Amino acid sequence: MRNAFVALLILAAVLFAVAYRRGDDTHKKAVQTGRDMFVNVLPILAAAFTVAGLLQTVLPGEALSRWLGEEAGWRGIVIAPFIGALVQGGPFSFFPLFDAVFRDAVGTGTAIAMITGWAMHNVGHLPFEFAFLGPRFVVLKLAAVILVPPLSGTIAHFLFG
Q1: Burial of residue 48, with CB atoms counted within 10 A of its CB: 0-12 exposed, 13-18 middle, 19 or more buried
Q2: What is the pLDDT of residues 42-97, one digit of tens each?
Q3: Domain housing 50
């Protein structure tokens, strides 16, 4: 996580320098926009970390390992995308939850399948997709990507597991 933080700081410094060189106070507006985004996201982060901490203490680790760990084998890779699809929220809530609850309890293939399932099949997106894109689009999208999470989990299991 430290490397990502350093990389983001460097990127922010470079972008700030570019905005500053424009000479039109763009850099000030950028800092204000970033501050506003931070203030808006902070409650979500606090709630996500609280939920992640509580789930870590409430969910039995042995049950997670049995269903999603290395010993679960193919069962974990098949179940994980459904669990990922059910977890609501954006990356601010999903990744702290995944890190606290699942990271040490699941195998590599299962982790990849769960994260891919969350990204591609998130059930919280379905009402918006149906409303804005229509049922035909939703059915076509799901048909096109339904096997991607377990397939990616299987590939990850064989390559890195």
Answers
A1: buried
A2: 887 787 777 767 766 776 677 777 788 777 888 999 999 998 888 877 887 788 88
A3: 1-58
